[in-house]
Design goal:
Blueprint: E1 2-11, E2 20-22, E3 24-28, E4 31-32, E5 45-49, H1 50-60, E6 73-76, E7 88-90, E8 95-101, H2 111-116, H3 121-124, E9 126-132, E10 134-137, E11 141-145, E12 148-156, H4 158-161, H5 169-184, E13 187-195, H6 199-211, E14 216-220, H7 231-235, E15 241-242, H8 244-255, E16 268-271, E17 274-279, H9 283-305
Parallel strand pairs: 5-6, 12-13, 12-14, 14-17
Antiparallel strand pairs: 1-2, 1-6, 1-11, 3-4, 3-10, 5-9, 7-8, 7-11, 8-9, 15-16, 16-17
Helix pairs in contact: 5-9, 8-9
Length: about 300
Amino acid sequence: MNTVKIISVNISKEKGTPKTSVDSIELNYEGVAGDAHAGKWHRQVSLLGAESFEAFSEIAGKSFNYGEFAENITTRGLKLNDTRPGDRLCNQNVDLMITQIGKKCHGSGCSIFNEVGTCIMPKEGIFAKVIKPGFLKAGDILEYRPKVYRIGVITLSTRASMGVYPDLSGPQIISDMETYSKTAGWNTDFDYHLIPDDKEMLGTILKTMTESGTDIIFTTGGTGIGPEDFTPEVVKPFFDKEIPGIMEHVRLKYGAEKPNALVSRSIAGLAKESLIFTLPGSKKAVTEYMSEITPLLEHLIFMRMGIDNH
């Protein structure tokens, strides 16, 4: 288990000024109570490692006080800029979700930049939003919990489920997501189901996945107009918000060359905390759809988390 120790907690009443070390801070749903950077946004709390202070002090040829880089929490024990948005820092009292790594320096509006000519927050500092409010003080320990993205893959094919032929589309989705996850730096956990064309079975699995907070759910198969094509009808009632533009784009892009692609009734949307994408049943179509969906995933996940970084 990775942990970080809090070295200092710091507050400033005005933006653009160094923060002052205090005995303790209160975290509420807007950030640090009484701090100038608190608010209803994703950069409520700033963190910086003491290791960064020490490295920067050598470069600058002088020492700096904790809080001088406008960080609310100074830590030791973890390279903070190796974390990812969605990761958590928590203990029994508080829970912080990391939302951003680094930020643009204020330049001439930054007192450290004016004095030294450079700053460390753009590369070394991180930001978080409060998930569980509470109190923190120097000496407290936070546990680092990397985000694990839970990905559900459901293939609907009666014949494949009977072993008449192997399922190629479900494993293709998993392969594409494994490739994407390596590039994005995601930790992933897959939940794969190969089921017959059965409405009740599909509905039961979707209910379990959405209620358990599965991050992304892909179905493959059942998006055409045949008698056993019912996937969109089963999935759509789960949506809290439909995202029509994604599938419309895919249909138009590939339908321009292959009109049969326009027959697909694939849909996408958000069900509770789960993004759901219904894909056609062929391996080739899955590859085409995934090539358009994966570039959007990080933005969609950030929007779902309430991270306004676009």
